[in-house]
Write a structure and sequence with these properties.
Order of helices and strands: HHHHHHHHHHHHHHHHHHH
CATH superfamily of the largest domain: Helix-hairpin-Helix base-excision DNA repair enzymes (C-terminal)
Structural class: mainly alpha
Low-confidence stretches: 5-31, 310-350
CATH architecture of the largest domain: Orthogonal Bundle
Mean pLDDT: 80
Length: about 350
């Protein structure tokens, strides 16, 4: 079979008006672009990752939420610590939001922690929802996370699952199967390619993990093709030597609004109040602080439901506005209401 075969299949899939349904073209991809995947995954897969050794939905969800925009190396010790403290959704639901935010400190993007806490309360009250649509109704759970829960945990035992597709899996499928970058094809096309490319030797769980590992170790934004199990039949390679993508310039954390928000939240969780002197001392090490930027950070934290009630009142007392775009923030409770009223309040907060 020639190296041009994969590229020709990709061209047919990308034709504006295909001569046959996409599913028919995708059927020809099974056992082609993923031919070398099962053996490679058995030998080189990241089988040591602890969240791959459990099918408990709560443990899997905690890992998926932590891994959003946070590296595996940073998540590893924090995942263990979080689950030691709250091994079940019910245990997390019995904690206060402040406790969860303190445990989350250092992982960044604390809205994720609040969404996880809200989800814990819903699951503790009503159990895990059925299917992708039901899981997507949980706070902070989108299409990818819902599919990941179905593929990787017991939440998917009774429901057929589609491969989870994030940026990395989309890039692997687009390049290896279709010879293009993911932004050049529709999400539906990527879903079809991923579904039809699963080798029969790999269940959906292992198949998805294998593609994650290819994306992490080889098919990165700047490809590292040596040793890639998909290299031999890769349509991207057949279309021409991959060109390394220009490295993305990440904005500096120092002096950013993220640093300002994180510093204010840490001070609020530490003392529970933001009097002028306390706030000035906390922000002494943050460059570029101005009243306008502090107002923006406070408003964002309050609107996201992250400021403890005492801190929100203290900030208001200093004359700093807690309004942005005319929306008044609401104080976040630091104690939990009775379990019977929890589900309704969490639904209103989503």
């Amino acid at each position: 079979m020639s190296d041009d075969f994969g590229a020709s299949v990709a061209n047919r899939l990308l034709t504006a008006v295909p001569r046959a349904p996409l599913s028919a073209h995708c059927a020809t991809l099974r056992g082609m672009w993923t031919d070398g995947l099962p053996r490679w995954f058995g030998e080189h897969g990241r089988h040591h990752l602890p969240w791959r050794l459990t099918t408990d939905p709560w443990a899997v969800l905690v890992s998926e939420v932590m891994l959003q925009q946070t590296s595996v190396s940073r998540v590893l010790p924090r995942w263990h610590g979080f689950l030691q403290r709250w091994p079940t959704a019910a245990a997390c639901a019995d904690a206060s939001l402040d406790e969860v935010l303190r445990e989350w400190s250092g992982l960044g993007y604390p809205r994720r922690a609040r969404a996880l806490w809200l989800t814990a309360g819903i699951v503790a009250t009503a159990g895990w929802p059925d299917g992708e649509a039901g899981l997507r109704a949980l706070p902070g759970v989108g299409s990818y996370t819902a599919r990941a829960l179905l593929a990787f945990s017991d939440a998917g035992i009774a429901a057929p699952s589609r491969p989870p597709r994030d940026v990395n899996l989309g890039r692997v499928a687009a390049r290896a199967a279709l010879g293009v970058e993911p932004h050049q094809v529709t999400p539906a096309a990527l879903d079809s390619v991923l579904a039809s490319g699963r080798p029969r030797a790999l269940p959906m769980r292992q198949y998805s993990y294998a593609l994650f590992d290819v994306g992490a170790l080889h098919c990165r934004a700047a490809p590292r093709c040596d040793g890639c199990p998909l290299w031999r039949r890769c349509a991207f390679r057949a279309a021409g030597a991959p060109v390394a993508a220009a490295p993305r310039c990440q904005p500096s954390y120092r002096g950013s609004l993220r640093q300002l928000r994180g510093t204010i939240l840490a001070a609020a969780l530490d003392g529970g109040s933001l009097e002028p002197e306390q706030l000035a001392a906390a922000l002494a090490g943050v460059p570029g602080v101005s009243r306008e930027r502090v107002d923006e950070a406070l408003a964002g934290l309050a609107n996201d439901g992250l400021l403890p009630g005492a801190a929100g009142r203290g900030a208001a007392a200093t004359g700093r506005t807690l309004r942005r775009d005319g929306v008044a923030p609401t104080a976040t409770p630091t104690t939990r209401p009775a379990r019977g009223s929890l589900r309704a309040r969490r639904s209103a907060e989503r």
